[in-house]
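Appendix B. One record, verbatim.
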Amino acid sequence: MIIFPAIDILDGNCVRLIQGDYNRERIYGDSPVDMAKQWEEKGAEYIHIVDLNGAKTGESINNKIIKEIANAVSIPVQVGGGIRSIETIKDYIDSGVSRVIIGTAAINDQAFLREAVNTFEEKIAVSVDARNGYVATDGWTDTSDVVALDLVKKLEKLGVQTIVYTDIAKDGMLQGPNIKEQQIINKSTTMDVIASGGVTTKDDVENLRKLEVYGAIIGKALYDGKLEFEALMED
């Protein structure tokens, strides 16, 4: 299982939100590039980046920083948040980003998603963000009437190879992931599933490993010192 340290960028800073709430942020540093270098030095195999400005508005003011990160580290990076055009995807991939994550647009624009998958294949992932079993959109500010499990099955048929599955209720709360929900999703698809939301302890990581998910994203627990990245890499 790949452990992805998360770098969430808001207004150029490295931050974490509580349950995706933009009014509940904590700044952990003013240099996301330096943060990425630190994770690489600690042994990270892959870095997960979220453009929070892009996720909320669809317009990125952080794309320059994200490109700098991709060029500053030798490990792959994946990027999500406000990816709503083929041009944006191509720009990121041409700049060294390994995988681009589509979120809201996967719900609102099926033609775009289909074109993205057909054009960029395994370089496209889809973020499935669920609140009480239903998909949330627009930086988690809205909840759709789309059932998360139905979306997962539809994505597989479209040829998507990787999804990031987040239980919003768990995100940033340091209360553990929704193991049951992650298990249901992982068993329902042959796609690579990256679990996200609430991973706080080594036991949480081990429980996800037992599910045989492809990866797990960890954010707040690492920044608050609840988990030591090096210790996780030793297992």
